[in-house]
């Protein structure tokens, strides 16, 4: 499908996915492979360039991840980053040693602009360093083309062999001209034309799905989240009513969410598909009655989903294809692609395929990063409120109600959460107006412009995830002249890049006060509103 490809070889560094994303931002298709991938396989893919990532160890440590010398003899340009740079040196006969001090953080660096890597950037700028070891001797044929106060070889190259090494991380935003440097490598040195685009992804996938599915039947479990919604839209465009979407409303969705999903995909919506909405609220509440332990709640909700889906699938009968909304980070994180085998098991609804009668699984979004899925969603004409949904846990409000779940508590947390989201959105829009940024819904904008607007022009305090949770605490209050004994709502808002660590967001006091007073006035059963300041760790983002 892709004529041009750059390969990222993963040595377990924390930014490996970011490297691939940055390459794709140069409109060049990119995939991540483990350093264990045999050389012949890499060569057979005929990449236009190869990038070696950072890694957690020292290249000279026993059993450290390595690569063969032949990788550098394929005639394909190679760029080593941090660990990758040191590995390149070591394998080709240079020397890497422990430095007296770790170089970490933003570092002023001087560049030799005669290097093709640094074309068009200033002679001096800030880069992001994170290393204990340094290149004490370059391999033969290399020349140093950048340095810092502590690091004589911050970058080096052997142009004749097409080998390049950067001690710093161009992929992180803290490196001022990182994007330019990667662009210079991918588009300049590797000579990629840059014809990978989201619209071409959507069009080629539609063709690919059509030729694979033929006149077969496709079944999809639609959760209303970004991935499954984009997949539903893509399949709908490709095979129309050969697609059946089963949407299980477990009664633990956000306010009006079930109706919103049904409005887009159900009757009268934009797509001509078979849409089955299962209203399983009562069933779920019954199963969850009296259950307080978070992991048990998760398990019950996950298992019940499989039961409900299975019953619906039986009614539909055998299908040819089961579609799944797997995306690239899922592939990498489950250890199938790259090195970092962090499996967040509680994030997957496991075991689904065993219960459904189908011949084959299709995963059309398997190559995309989350941002790219969102862009594809815009390309497919999905509304922005669906495309830019915040992450929402599979067990839904079930884990945002501390202790046992009841229909009444669901109502309280849904109402409070809707007010919170409304007020944050209002404040963000006001901030944009004050700062002269057009509204994202404005007509005449391209998909990329709409994406940039919705994503990258928010106020500096904008949380990456925010929601209301119902604490199980009741306390005494006074409303009018009456004593109350009602629940406390906790507001959570975090800033995070990877959801592995997070900090409480600095939402303006005024906004929080408006939210508080609206919740107290409008949501029956609440007499107290708390703001959660805990970072992760020691907290987690969700409270259960
Ligand atoms: P935590 O609470 O682990 O959350 O800090 C990190 C991210 O994962 C989401 N999350 C879940 N997603 N099923 C999911 O699909 C779950 O059980 C679950 N628990 C947490 C959470 O919303 C946050 O984005």
Give the overall shape, derived from the CA principal axes.
globular
Radius of gyration: 26 Å
Q: What is the number of helices? A: 15
Uncertain parts: 340-351
**CATH level 1 name of the largest domain:** Alpha Beta
How would you name the CATH homologous superfamily of the largest domain? HUPs
Count of the separate structural domains: 3
Proportion of residues in β-strands: 15-25%
What fraction, in percent, of the residue positions are helical? 25-40%
Average pLDDT confidence is 91
Instruction: Please give the number of β-strands.
Output: 18
Bound molecules: xanthosine-5'-monophosphate
Structural class: alpha/beta
Sheet with the most strands, sense and barrel status: 9 strands, mixed
Q: Output the CATH topology of the largest domain.
A: Rossmann fold
Question: What distance lies between the first and last C-alpha atoms, to the nearest angstrom?
Answer: 43 Å
What is the CATH architecture term of the largest domain? 3-Layer(aba) Sandwich
Within the largest sheet, what's the order of strands? 2-1-3-4-9-8-7-5-6
